[in-house]
Design brief:
alpha+beta, 4-stranded antiparallel beta sheet, 251 residues, homodimer
Chain lengths: 251, 251
């Protein structure tokens, strides 16, 4: 299906018809609204990001649809990461018993209990040679890239990671989790899914409860997702920002 | 303007007219396409993220419109950050002379020269008490929040940051820059702006060339933005990903 249909063209075609058939005015108006929407798509993203806030109280009765959840999983998988290595996995928790246990190890933030789902962004425990080689095998399988092109780059990455301190690799992976969080938050905003990005939790206790060590993972960030409670006081507050004039420097 | 117009309703109205006036079939088809687009909005985000890639060759003749550029500035300003502190600024470089000088300090990646604009995500040099107090003054001014509510939280943050090592504060700020990068990359994809997220550059040399120390900033990430060259070999390659089945764990 082509997505390149010109709204202006449709309005024009419609206008021709309208000259003949006056009954169609309402449809014409509706089409004009869609044309305007297309033209103002930019401000639509801004509107969605303005609508977004760190949800403090979720409505526990409202659950994400299967479709929305699949979209978020795919968004996570499609996140850009350094070298394309994706040193991350995402836990999707939809289990009230576990969610209740997360509250005391999340600085008592009840969002982890009341949210539809709790996403836990995790990094790999470490970056092994096997992991890097597997990545290049995947590139070869997906793109049919010849080995004489892949091998020098594989060698470069193997050497490069072998020379890095484990602590630096850990930080590099954590940063990729923040990148994924940025992607997910924006996707949530566009889909009008409420979310609350959280650094304030006890990673070691999450790792233990969710048996992350056994999975070769460590928790980095927590993102409860769902729908805001109607009485969340914070949803009505004005957004506080330094402002474009202060945070942007043009050269 | 209301954005809640039901496409189904429009199609229905149109269908009524079509029964009378057969000439309008083409318009009916176009409206159906828009109805389908609305229903598949989710997969539209996925399509956009699939379309996105790390642009290896920009078309230097294609520039971002003022509207798109303003959108990106606003998107950056609206990024979620830890405690809402926004310890970041973004340089927007649109200066061929400077862009040429960036190439040798960006591992010879020519995207910084050929892109329409180069965005440099910077962190604050440090987190001072004045900065934190200014943030709470901004909350008070924006939301009219009483001081007896703000003061305990202000005190908590002042103490908390005073106890942190400067190195840890630096890392915390860098992570926020990655979050902003994730937001910007997704906004770019939705608007079909090409981009190339870059960690591979020499931050100290960027800081010197762009006089960032004088601005109280340090460079963290570079993001050339613009439009892909028609002959960018990489734009045609399949995306390599571990896949949802591997990166998602459901509990």
């Amino acid at each position: 299906m082509s997505f390149n249909v010109s709204m202006e063209l449709i309005v024009f075609r419609f206008a021709e018809i309208r000259l003949t058939y006056h009954e169609s005015t309402k449809v014409g108006l509706s089409i004009c609204i869609f044309a305007a929407k297309k033209r103002h798509m930019n401000s639509d993203i801004i509107n969605k990001l303005q609508w977004r806030y760190a949800c403090k109280k979720f409505d526990p009765s409202k659950k994400l649809s299967e479709e929305k959840l699949n979209m978020l999983k795919e968004v996570f998988n499609l996140t850009a990461t350094s070298y394309g290595l994706q040193p991350l996995k995402m836990l999707v928790i939809n289990n009230l018993d576990i969610q209740k246990q997360l509250v005391p190890i999340s600085m008592d933030q009840e969002q982890v209990r009341d949210a539809s789902h709790v996403l836990v962004l995790c990094r790999e425990a470490g970056m092994t040679s096997e992991y890097i080689i597997e990545y290049f095998n995947r590139v070869e399988a997906t793109r049919n890239t010849p080995r004489d092109i892949l091998d020098p780059f594989q060698e470069f990455l193997l050497t490069s990671f072998a020379e890095k301190k484990p602590e630096d690799i850990k930080l590099w992976m954590e940063k990729q989790a923040y990148l994924a969080l940025g992607n997910l938050l924006t996707a949530c905003a566009i889909e009008e899914i409420d979310a609350c990005p959280m650094e304030g939790f006890e990673p070691e206790k999450y790792d233990e409860l969710l048996q992350l060590e056994e999975k070769g993972l460590r928790s980095v960030l927590v993102l409860p997702v769902g729908y805001r409670a109607e009485d969340d006081f914070f949803s009505g507050l004005k957004k506080v920002r330094r402002g474009v004039n202060e945070v942007i420097i043009e050269i």
